[in-house]
Design goal:
Length: 88
Amino acid sequence: MTFLEWLDNEHHRVATEYRIELYKEIQHCKRIFGKITPDAKDMLVKALREIPHPTMEKYKGNDATMELYKKAPKVDFLAIFNEAVETI
């Protein structure tokens, strides 16, 4: 596996884990309240904000790939969060 494949897989794993945690919290709230009212939505959004972002595995590359690692786009957790909020 090349470094870029590893980096792509890590970004995908981290984004997927975050989406799963957000989805589980939304489903949990729907089970409790049945219907998401505006008050429940406000509480849910606050709870979703508290979900920590997953971390990537420690960088195991060499100096040659360090520049690629630094320049690579990072996971946009805010966009993922906004996607989840729109589904409520």
